[in-house]
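New to this. Please check this record:
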Amino acid sequence: MSEVYAVRRGLLRDRYAAAGSAAALVSRPANVRYLAGGAPPGAVLLLGPGEDVLLCPRAPTGDPAHGRPDERLRVDVLPAPDADPVVTAAGLALGLDADCLAVEEHDLTVSRHRAMSSVAPRLRLADLGSAVEQLRLVKDEEEIACLRIAAEITDQALGELLESILVGRTERHLALELERRLVDHGADGPAFATSVGTGPHSGLGRHRPTDRRVEEGDFLSVCLGANYRGYRCEIGRTFVIGTAPADWQIELYDLVFAAQRAGREALVPGAAYRDVDHAARHLLDSAGHTDGLPAATGHGVGLEIDEDPQLAPAAMGKLDACVPVTVEPGVHLPGRGGVRIDDTLVVRPEADGGPELLTITTKELLAL
């Protein structure tokens, strides 16, 4: 992988050099990990005119959750654990005769930006923008392999839960059990806070689990994902508890399922982000569920659970092959509950079979 990280840093170097900067400072943790292989807590990456340096407040521990730094990188541990690596990097860049340093202004606080200017007043600071995020958009096959394993772990954890007795258990208990099962099956941890919603809470996006207990006839909505070697996936499913579903539950489920299928089928290279959103959204709009729909039908996943692209009504841009995204429409009826169906897929051309579905737990409406 060392060569992969070196190539990524080279691509970024070409971008900031073309914009007139002699060096760049990457501080957003996911971006540091993408370029350096590992991102110990608080670490930043300085790409200099001569060599690249990973600056860490403390020595890397090798914790899998943080990754392993590229062995080709110089790793500097700050002499004082409370020193700011961003400020240290500014002084180091000045010492390397860099006249202009590109920084991630969207990640830096105003106070850190000022501290850099005070330490290196002759160093001009420019905005690196979202250059690294743009590089991260299209995944290589090794990244997709990590996402595929994350999805397998997530499917396993969810499948085991469905085989257990659910009535009488709380949302909070079920969420904790799912997160434990993710780790048991090899995840570094959950990709995000697991959401479990029952009855009137079902169908809500990112619902924080409560002490409400599962009851007969409830809709049960679950949204979870595994973090495997830094790569994060997402799955969401809705079930009926204990009895055959009521007519209104079947009707609502079939509607959301049709919307989710339309969104998945729209995932082709060259498709506009907004068109994928429209493919799913217009079915729900036409059925009278305009109010309360999610702001986006889906989003990119990778080293972060919510990254570009955004599949939303006003989103600009078009899909490329090898971009992993979620498709996750949902409808919530206040006081009654609702349905969310969420998959992680990889955009593939038709010649390669179309979008690759990573999360494969059944989308049939099961009565558990």
